[in-house]
């Protein structure tokens, strides 16, 4: 009989601790959770092997004055997987999903400049063979997501434990943060491994450890750097993912977004440009739970005029690209 991984309460607490502070030493996590350092190290290795756990350092583009885009690409059925794989290899995409029906690819992209955006949206994608339509939406305002991960909602840690793990809040910034080439290099390294040691970062950049410590500290203090915990959801009982495109009364946009942000099922919610002016990523246990969420919660929100629910067949890229074997 095939081995079936069964995560327990300690695993869940470890995941939430890593979401709160992705670079927290195992010794500090162990102290807060009341277990040994060896237990945390062993659980981390097991989660990495069994659920492909990774802690990723991400750049908050809103702190950099950069716009994010969500693109829906429709194509012929024989082209969807190859298109998704090609987009996933790009460093400026953070999420790629093959959606229900097998003819739609959803892409979240974070271009560093207007020129990069235009090259992709106006030149490269429209010229791609077998792409039948492109619908690009600019993210106007985040309601949930980014530094606020879904694991913040699982409530396995009490308030005292969360406070003991939570780093200092980023300073408020009136103007976008300017990055130097070294900052970009550090962010790129942390994008692949958010727990890379200062020694490893120093060796990869040719800088001293003191310089790297200061750079990482500044990136965190300004809110540019945050951490995302990536892992397979199915072993934890969540096997149904979907993207909801909502048409919302403009006067109710902020209120609807705040309501959605409080829902346990919501991983990401944002106001976007386009006819569907709110996009939501949800995670449920079953299709029946997804139906109940749509009927009982989303359907009851004042101001929601229309909902298109698109189940995710497969995540091709969830922040970091892992080629299919």
Automatic annotation (TrEMBL):
Pfam families: AsnC_trans_reg, HTH_24, HTH_AsnC-type. SUPFAM superfamilies: Dimeric alpha+beta barrel, Winged helix' DNA-binding domain. The keyword Transcription applies. SMART domains: HTH_ASNC. The keyword Secreted does not apply. Keywords: DNA-binding, Transcription, Transcription regulation. InterPro entries: AsnC-type_HTH_dom, Dimeric_a/b-barrel, Tscrpt_reg_AsnC-like, Tscrpt_reg_AsnC/Lrp_C, WH-like_DNA-bd_sf, WH_DNA-bd_sf. Residues 7-67, 179-239 form the HTH asnC-type domain. This is Lrp/AsnC family transcriptional regulator. It comes from Streptomyces phaeochromogenes.
């Amino acid at each position: 009989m095939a081995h079936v991984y069964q995560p327990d309460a300690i695993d869940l607490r470890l995941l939430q601790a890593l979401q709160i502070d992705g670079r927290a030493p195992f010794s500090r996590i162990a102290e807060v959770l009341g277990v040994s350092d060896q237990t945390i190290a062993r659980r981390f290795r097991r989660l990495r092997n069994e659920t492909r756990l990774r802690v990723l350092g991400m750049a908050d583009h809103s702190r950099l004055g950069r716009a994010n885009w969500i693109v829906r690409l429709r194509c012929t059925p024989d082209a969807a997987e190859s298109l998704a794989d090609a987009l996933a290899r790009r460093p400026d995409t953070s999420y790629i999903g093959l959606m229900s029906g097998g003819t739609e690819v959803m892409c979240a992209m974070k271009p560093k400049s207007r020129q990069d955006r235009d090259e992709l949206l106006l030149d490269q994608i429209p010229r791609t063979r077998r792409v039948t339509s492109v619908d690009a939406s600019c993210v106007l305002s985040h309601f949930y997501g980014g530094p606020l991960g879904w694991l913040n909602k699982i409530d396995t840690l009490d308030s005292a434990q969360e406070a003991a793990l939570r780093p200092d809040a980023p300073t408020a910034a009136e103007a976008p943060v300017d990055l130097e080439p070294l900052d970009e290099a550090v962010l790129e390294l942390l994008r692949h491994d958010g727990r890379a040691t200062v020694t490893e970062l120093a060796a990869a950049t040719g800088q001293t450890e003191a310089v790297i410590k200061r750079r990482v500290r500044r990136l965190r203090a300004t809110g540019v750097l945050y951490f995302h915990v990536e892992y397979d959801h199915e072993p934890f009982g969540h096997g149904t993912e979907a993207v909801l495109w909502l048409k919302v009364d403009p006067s109710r946009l902020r209120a609807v977004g705040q309501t959605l942000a409080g829902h346990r099922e919501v991983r990401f919610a944002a106001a976007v440009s386009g006819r569907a002016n709110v996009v939501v990523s949800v995670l449920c246990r079953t299709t029946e739970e997804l139906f109940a969420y749509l009927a009982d919660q989303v359907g009851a929100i004042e101001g929601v005029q229309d909902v298109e629910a698109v189940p995710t067949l497969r995540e091709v890229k969830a922040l970091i690209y892992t080629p299919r074997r």
